[in-house]
Amino acid sequence: VAAVAIGIWMGFAAPEDYQQGKTVRIMYIHVPFAWLSMMGWTLMSLSALGTLVWRHPLADVSVKAAAPIGAAFTFLALLTGSLWGKLTWGTYWQWDARMTSVLLLFLMYLGVIALSRALEDQLLAARAVAILVLVGFINIPIIKFSVDWWETLHQPASVFRMGGSSIHPDLLWPLAIMALGFTLLFVTLHVAAMRNEILRRKVIGVQLRRVDRAAAAMTTNSLIVPLRIG
User: Fold this and answer.
1) CA end-to-end span of the chain, whole Å?
2) DSSP secondary structure letter of residue 206
């Protein structure tokens, strides 16, 4: 909260862009959302490796917890990008490589959420989701380098590039602080969601054990009654 508050204050105190004017301030929320949308899928891909290779019990929990958060951040990246595009380019949407690949990422997040809920077998669902996540990771470098491989409305990389950032420090520092704040928010939400998922699975485990005990008791009673009658 402190990092985001400081970032917002620095963003409003930063000078306007010589071309975009005040609209450049959308960058301070749009760019962190876009970065974290890709970071979320990268985190899920590492967790998917933990599911398939090391079979770590928390790996699937991490994937399932990160998917809704990543979907929300991706949706916000698309929304803020559309608003910024309308003010800068005169259109809310253009089917260029960057926009299309980010939209595909959003649909992939929804696919992971749907697949994880569609299968009742937890182990089968974990493996299916892990495979989908790893296959979908190919979209991450496409998003990153789409501005270099194809002609798009987006400008080339301006923060992480050879030769250093092309953004003036007065504009770059608020962006960095906002990125830090939203990253901490993502991590906080992810840890809380993992905790909730672990508790949910414990509750389901307790309920299943009660059902098994009740079924075993009913079976025992059905065997004892005929013996007493005899």
Assistant:
1) 73
2) H
**Distances 128 to 116, 184, 189 between C-alpha atoms, Å:** 8, 29, 24
Q: What is the mean pLDDT of residues 195-204?
A: 92
- Amino acid, single-letter form, for residue 114: A
pLDDT above 90 (res 134): yes
Residue (of 202, 182, 159) closest to 76 by Cα position: 182
In the block, tokens 């958060």 appear at 69
Residue 124 CA to residue 51 CA, distance in Å, equals 11
Q: What is the pLDDT of residue 222?
A: 65
**pLDDT tens by residue, 92-119:** 998 989 999 999 999 999 999 999 999 8
11-20 confidence digits (pLDDT tens): 999 988 888 8
CB atoms within 10 A of CB 67: 25
Instruction: Characterize 120-136 residue by residue with b for buried, 16 or more Cβ atoms within 10 angstroms of its Cβ, and e for exposed.
Output: eeeeebbbbbbebbbeb
Q: What angle (nearest 5°) sits at the alpha carbon of residue 205, between those of residues 203 and 206? A: 65
Structure tokens at 89: 């380019």
CB-neighbour burial class of residue 5 (10 A; exposed 0-12, middle 13-18, buried 19+): exposed
List the helix and strand counts (H, then E) for the chain. Answer: 7, 0
Tokens matching residue 108: 């992939």
Residues 6+ apart with CB under 8 A from 65: 190, 193, 194, 196, 197
